């Protein structure tokens, strides 16, 4: 099928915050332990206990911000259990995630060391559900106060002389559910109280983040914005894509058919409506758009891999996940005036991970490659791309767009066009009219990520089955660019002057 589009290269659409490409790592299953932290005595190559191969891979996709320690874990986490000599740290039960022993070997110092190695911003999520105001306030003091105070001295005693810089702090997580089963009115009051003691020390300005709604809970957003909007810098939104929409049987990560493919993408596209409707409520209380919307948990959620601990949320990742990532990035770009950060759940070995590990082995998932292809948009100027996206349907009734795309201009003046073909069975020819752009002397370079089967994925035996390849199925002629996208693919095109 042939589709048309217009790229307005002379109509800037605002900066795409690099934090839209953020990550989330929780004390859950094998994300932190094994996936990131192997300890200082490990034979797996590491720097200060943190896996070197994982850090190298994450630096390649330029992870801009990392959220930690949860998730549901955050509202049961007592940060003082995770400081001091590791051998004397408390052992506790991770009640949410598999009932396993949490030895607290990865704590505040280890997380800040991880952020140092990744050169990313830390986003720390505090405990409202089972923690006190004092505990949260002291954590901020421990992290960021450079003068003389009980918490600053405690930090120094644990080997960190200088205060850290922490820009993002979340006041509770999913307080409508695992974070305390609160009503929005109650949480709004708690939020106002807790955030008062999240202090800005020594010029470290903290961006205070309120717990926002679950998916389409518009009442939660309404109440929070009305009662606490003026006390927050951002509010969160959580939305997961389940192929079936049912928690009891979510659908499998691989071995699925075209219906599961189609409905997964259809449900992922729902993010667009969620952001639009939540933004409308936010506009009512914050017409200047001072408060940001942070989608700090998003991604696919499938049945766990057979034989694995159900509490570990370990799942495979296929070309379908890469498409979910691509179309979700396109949606975040479209709403970038309001959406300032997003954090995929989760970085390693959990849910829609970008990396899977097994002992010393590591593989990069198709979602990793989607992040790699899209990183060019970080901090770039969005360019409006109007696509006549066509119709993709299985039954003639339910329809989703056949193609989805986004474009930006980076600081060096290069234009980046990212196009997704959502169709599992047909290629798509997209003819884009390049307006406001002199095409004479322009060179185009392309990369494509495509699947050779509907559930094509990487394994430890075949780690490069789904990997980016050079792409040449395009023509630049007569003021336009015509691109032929393979079925189930993401193409990244760079337009630059030679
Ligand atoms: O990402 C897994 C879990 O999903 C998080 O802990 C929680 O916040 C959400 O329900």
TrEMBL record:
It is an enzyme of class 3 (hydrolase). Gene3D superfamilies: Glycosidases, Golgi alpha-mannosidase II. InterPro entries: Alpha-L-AF_C, ASD1_cat, GH, Glyco_hydro_b. GO terms for molecular function: alpha-L-arabinofuranosidase activity. SMART domains: Alpha-L-AF_C. Pathway: Glycan metabolism. Its EC number is 3.2.1.55. Residues 296-489 form the Alpha-L-arabinofuranosidase C-terminal domain. Keywords: Carbohydrate metabolism, Glycosidase, Hydrolase. It catalyses: Hydrolysis of terminal non-reducing alpha-L-arabinofuranoside residues in alpha-L-arabinosides. One of its GO terms (biological process) is L-arabinose metabolic process. It holds the Pfam family ASD1_dom. Homohexamer; trimer of dimers. Belongs to the glycosyl hydrolase 51 family. This is non-reducing end alpha-L-arabinofuranosidase. It comes from Paenibacillus spiritus.
